[in-house]
Amino acid sequence: LRSLIDRHLDRYLLAIGDRLPAWVHEGFDILPKREAIEGIHRPSDREAFERSRRSLAFEELLLLQIGLLLTTRDEPGEAHAADGPLTEGFLAGLPFELTGAQERAIAEVESDLRRPIRMMRLLQGDVGSGKTIVALISALRAIDADFQVAFMAPTEILAEQHFLNLSRLLAGLPLRVELLTASTKGKEELKRDVEGGRIDLLIGTHSLIQESVSFSRLGFAIVDEQHRFGVVQRSLLEEKGEKVDLLVMSATPIPRTIALTLYGEFDISMLDELPMGETRISTHWVASSRRDEVYAGVGKLLSEGKRGYVVLPLVEESEKVEASAAVQVAAELERRFPGIRVGLLHGRLAPAEKSDAMDRFRSGDIRLLVATTVIEVGIDVCDADFMVIEHAERFGLSQLHQLRGRIGRAGQKAVCYAIADAKTEEARRRLRAFVENSDGFVIAEEDLRIRGPGDLLGTQQHGFLSRLRAVDLLTDFELIRAAREAAHRIHREEAPEDLKEEVKRRFGEELKWLRV
After folding, report:
1. 3-state secondary structure (DSSP) of residue 396
2. Were both Cys, which of 19, 36, 204, 315 would link to 52 (CB 3.0–4.6 Å)?
3. Cα gap 204→217, rounded to integer Å
4. Largest Cα–Cα distance of the chain, in whole Å?
5. Structure pTM?
6. pLDDT of residue 515 exceeding 60
7. Strand partners, 180
């Protein structure tokens, strides 16, 4: 093998050219490509090998970042923010202090809204970090400038919850907030009011991107849980207005290296502080043989007036089987806890039934809610105090963290039981990491270590990442940041044609489908 490598290097090395500008090599200590390829195959020592790897990785990352910037960056825009009575009145009446991270993110979004270049910003934060408030204050800036705002969520439950929460927060301010989903009554009249500019903030699901929905003056679009939407769906929302500014939000923390790699065309705002300070949730991994002990603890919590969730894993083969399992568990819990009203929430319920279950749980009428992972994203019942996750070994690490984020949301003490018999080392690592960590960004990094980028991101995105052959997504954060910086400068100065051609050759169609 050694002689084969040497023979090919001797034959082809001199034919390898270098497309990177001289200032890139000098400013970022990057070897010329010919030198880097020879150095990685014939290193004099470990340090020489690492410098060569780093140089090749930098080029891969730089080409990717340039490709992302070429597709969407610096599109002409319009200023969509103004100082005005709505924002000032809302901030004056805010019943809590914003965190430093929230204030920083609000300033970043507002700065983008005031520029004549289209905003494309990713807002990511841990569970309970206060992304919705950042989005709402930014929305008020746009409404103060006489623009409409669209807020799209992936499910009816989440859209309805945003509508209820934002309506409550905005009560008393002279603006109109409405909800549009498949279940909304009086849709035609509502659509006429949107088109006539009589609705300031429209919250909804995919219903917002229907052809029949027209805005009078849409200036700002917010997409919650953006990974649940494809590029096409997001584009359809943006096309509802002229030069619309876009804020996408993710409550699933993404490892920093992957965020910078996959979202190169987005500016990124991070919420890395929790409004309530440190989480007060205690997490326990319990073997299934001790299930009765867990439910004895649940009985004690219920006797103290607490409420909580019992979460079941999805059954991929059949929603019908999944619903049947949920019904059986609910019946068992009703027998175990007579006098406690048990509710059900699963994928086969009609939207109205799901809303009813959530309303009754929120009011305290239902004290124990048996649910599938339909509650994973965004469900916000502040008074939920405990959670039991059945068959926790079937859940991914980030998914477990998202579920746990549904409890203790008012800062109260809460408890999470993960009932699991982990039969593989990977499952044991996942559950240990879940019990030992409460920081979503730490959990995201650990998830990357355990599963690797392929399983973490899914097939399409992994197909793309597999082309990054020299990059180490666990350790190359600073290198990714440097490549991003260089790409922005190259893009500002107009990328040379040979670099553009290399981007197309190397990544081609994958750039188009990166986040579908």
Report:
1. coil
2. 36
3. 17
4. 82
5. 0.82
6. no
7. 204
State whether 62 and 134 are in the same domain: no
* pLDDT at residue 184 greater than cutoff 80: yes
Say whether both 419 and 344 belong to one domain: yes
Based on the domain organization, do 503 and 364 belong to the same domain?
Answer: no
Q: Do the domain assignments include residue 322?
A: yes
- Mean per-residue pLDDT for 281-285? 96
Residue 67 sits in the same domain as residue 104: no
In contact, 147 and 245? CB cutoff 8 Å: no
Q: Which candidate, 453, 467, 454, places its Cα nearest to that of 63?
A: 467
pLDDT bin (cut points 50, 70, 90) of residue 317 is: low
Residues 428 and 485 in one domain: no
271, 301, 321 — which closes off a domain? Answer: 271
pLDDT digits (tens, 9 = 90+) for 247-271: 999 877 888 788 887 777 788 999 9
The confidence score (pLDDT) of residue 516 equals 36
Q: In Å, how far are 65, 115, 264, 283, 311 from 71, measured between CA atoms?
A: 10, 20, 11, 44, 41
Give the per-residue SS3 of 246-312: EEEEECCCCCHHHHHHHCCCCEEEEECCCCCCCCCEEEEEECHHHHHHHHHHHHHHHHCCCEEEEEC
- Structural domain count of the chain: 3
Q: Which domain holds residue 360?
A: 281-437
CA 50 – CA 300 distance, rounded (Å): 57
Distance between CA atoms of residues 204 and 182, nearest Å:
9
| Whether 236 and 342 share a structural domain | no
What CATH number is given to the structural domain containing 287? Answer: 3.40.50.300
Other C-beta atoms within 10 Å of 310: how many?
24
Same domain, 187 and 206: yes
* pLDDT of 188 higher than 60: yes
Instruction: Please report whether residue 411 resides in a domain.
Output: yes
The answer to whether residue 297 scores a pLDDT higher than 90 is yes
The pLDDT of residue 88 is: 94
Is the CB of residue 211 less than 8 Å from the CB of residue 184? no
In a domain, 276, yes or no: no
